[in-house]
Amino acid sequence: MKSKKEKKIHYVQTKESRSLEKTPSFPSQFQNPIHDLYFPFRILFVFLFFLLFQCQSNGDSKTISYFKNKEKTKADIQSKWETLAPSGIKSLTYMVMLGDGEIYQSQIGASSDSKTERFKIGSITKLFTGIAILQLQESGKLKLDDPASKFLPELNLVKPKKEGYREITIRDLLTHQSGLPSDLANGFFLSPDSKEDEIYRSFRSLPKTLAGLERNEPGKIHSYSNLSFGLLGNIIERVSGESIESYFRVHLFEKAGMKHTTLLENLEGSELITGYSGIFWKTRTIRPVIRDLTAGSISTTANDMGLFMKAFFRSKENKGLLTSISFEEFHKTQIGPVANFEMKLGLPVMKTSYQTDGKTIWFYGHSGSLPPFFADLVYDPNTEIVSFVAGNTLGLQTGKLKSTNTEVMQVLWEEKMGIQPEPSLLPIMGNKGSVPGEEGVYISPMGIHEYKKGNPPTLSLMGFDVGLIEKENRYGIDLRVLFGLIKINDPSINEMRVEFETWEGNSIFTLYSKDLPKGVAGIGVKFTPDNRYPDAQFFGTFVTKESYAIIPKLKLEKDKRGFPLLTIYYSLGEMENAVQVPCQWENDNTLRILGYGRNLGERLTIGSKEGKPLIQYSGGEYRKD
């Protein structure tokens, strides 16, 4: 019997129940010496940060062909994942489907011989939630365009920011455009020792917490929302009359043949693999248990994910999880806010266009992060090619999971179709795209940015002042490190573009590339500080008494540029991340976070309790430290 600590690989081809085992050789050090060391902590923006700071050539030269060469394809895919784990990730599992009806899976790193190990897949859970909602529409119990308040009357307690907003629909919740706060931080994480009844009670109390919240205009902008999907789970329970775990188990997991998958924490016959975090050494983390079950709580195995995808694809023949009509609706581009430009979203799967032999094809997928767990799924419903990966460690290599999974998907496509797909080229802009932009301060979901004219002009992104070089009537990025002495020539960075334009009378910028559709990273909106501030007593650090808080503290201070500056501290995977956002003073007890997008446009209420200054934010109370 091998110990749990030993490094090994299991390779399984499920159709023929064949397996082979080998001991790999792993790199002894990280592959990215110039990598942004704080990148793993910037969880909220993991995709964009990777594109900007991976600083490693993807390799443009290719001398091998994968066409109809399964063994070579599988071996090279295994090699790609071996470079990430276990040197940077303690354990990693992946699954691919080559369009032949078979499931190929492997696990790398520490594993158990006694039990099947599950990995949490985070927000990939949202695909299951979307399928459940479509199932209920098929049975006539709801419609996507029904007002959500028909099933959640508690939504009527949410006050519109302005009068005249239309009602929020179920489709709005599914497509992240409800106008509700992106997340409700208070109570998001539960005790790692929570029992099932405690988890259920917390999950079902979510609608009650809506009282006193404020909503923005639905349909105006995409703002990724865990809160919306937690509410969708409550709708599923109320409409179906079943507990959420029972509904998922009977109508999704069992229907697909998934034996080692659950929304809750424990499942007989399998165990949740231990999570780790750390940069140069790894330590165990507490188990992440969340209230918003249907937003990100599923734990599963690579093989079960393969069974799920097979059952999902059978929907095309009305023999799977959905009818063929619902399967088409799931993948149909939904009508979205004009502010998100080229971002394409299904229900709620993300769509990315590629070019093959002069034709446009679409890959679909979703990523998940419930630190220290990370996962990524990408697939093509037409060829039934799939690539899935999950890891259990928050570390340096975490940010490479998604990009590596995209490379794997391209290899899989070539094996079946004989050509490797290329991300769609950015459209060449006319003269109106060459507007240089207005100098000043901008706010986006990535934080605060200053645009300064010069030769070249510069824009601050994630703490770096990057040069903007005119390309294709917009700007390309000139990224340098070590006091500007070394230019980073990474292909992903060379493909990045910054475009200035106007939207609803606002001067804005967007940042995008071949792999990052315009709008996915949000928009940067110019604002002018008005030099209005609350009383001095409300400046300082504020903390919450909540156990396991996802936001343990806030810091409010004066920014020299003329606005109240809020620092929000996130505790994720036992590591801390912070984002700074500008605010506007509205009245005697209200501050407004500026901008559009995730966690922007939201309200802070200030006051006092027991003689001490108090901030109320995201459903929680924060007292001055």
Please characterize this protein's 3D structure.
It is a single chain. 20% of the residues lie in helices and 31% in strands. The protein is built from twelve helices and 38 strands. The strands form eight sheets. Strands 1, 2, 3, 4, 14, 15, 16, 17, 18 and 20 form a ten-stranded antiparallel sheet that branches. It has an eight-stranded antiparallel barrel with strand order 21-22-23-24-25-28-29-30. The longest helix has 18 residues, at 400-417. The chain is globular.
Provide tags for this entry:
8-stranded antiparallel β-barrel, Beta-lactam/transpept-like, 10-stranded antiparallel beta sheet, single chain, 20% helix, disordered N terminus, Beta-lactam-related, alpha+beta, 38 strands, AmpC-like, Beta-lactamase family protein, 625 residues
